[in-house]
């Protein structure tokens, strides 16, 4: 029994090719799991498991390394259940236009396994799930801009490898070439935005639509990571929403019908709602960033909303919604 469990611990530790684990790494992993075995024993075990599990040994350079082949049918030990399969397919359908999944062979193998699970005869209860579960964005249904897959794949590879790249970027002012430091990739509405900065201006973090890149030449240089940069904090600061001013004291007056949904879906944890004495209107208060997204949201309600505070925003919204 101990031998079987040791085999499983070792198999689950091995990656899929082209990644690999050396003999010493496997030994250290087994030791950490409580199995004190020699290199000779590990080599014998790997040879025994090589054919049935599709293992390969990369002996082109020292140290040699073991991995599952890219086509190994038993590369993943655990079986996928119906719920996991459904989640994987939803992920695939939602992300296939954001991330070039064709560049992730291991993920595609998992998606294929999920498809087989959902199509199996013994899972009729979730047959036709595509017609039962959908993802519908709650914004204007813009068409996605075309992104060149080779360029986006190359940029994403540089992002994951923490490498700079030289790229041509077409802004509204024309075409320019710069060296970029990629820091993150964000799905923003129907667009994908690369969070980065140019080598010539490391003080300004940019969020550039991925579809505007016309080329990408990966470089060997590591990115210069800004001090204390955190992608989550950057997004929470509202920069990608075209920030005008932080933490304004917003006060809006909605018609009861137009603002009723805010009881269930607040715009911010700080939100407070008061019903006017006549019951026809709602006063909504919140501490929130003043962004282009906020302004477009307010303008979308037309005459059904009125800005009360801050005063500067009253005038600017009135100019956009006469």
Can you characterise this structure?
The structure is a single chain. This protein is an alpha+beta fold and 322 residues long. The protein has four domains: 67 residues, Orthogonal Bundle (Arc Repressor Mutant, subunit A), CATH 1.10.10; 50 residues, no CATH class; 91 residues, Roll (SH3 type barrels), CATH 2.30.30; 79 residues, 2-Layer Sandwich (Alpha-Beta Plaits). Helix content is 33%, strand content 28%. It has ten helices and twelve strands. The strands form three sheets. Strands 7-6-5-4-8 form a five-stranded antiparallel β-sheet, covered by helices on one side. A four-stranded antiparallel β-sheet has the order 10-11-9-12. Strands 1-3-2 form a three-stranded antiparallel β-sheet. Helix 4 crosses helix 5. The N and C termini lie far apart (78 Å).
Q: How much β-strand is present in the residues?
A: 25-35%
CATH class of the largest domain: Mainly Beta
Q: How many E strands?
A: 12
Spatial strand sequence of the major β-sheet: 7-6-5-4-8
Query: In the residues, how many domains can be counted?
Result: 4
Low-confidence residue ranges: none
Summarize the amount of helix as a percent range: 25-40%
Overall shape: it is elongated
Tally of separate helices: 10
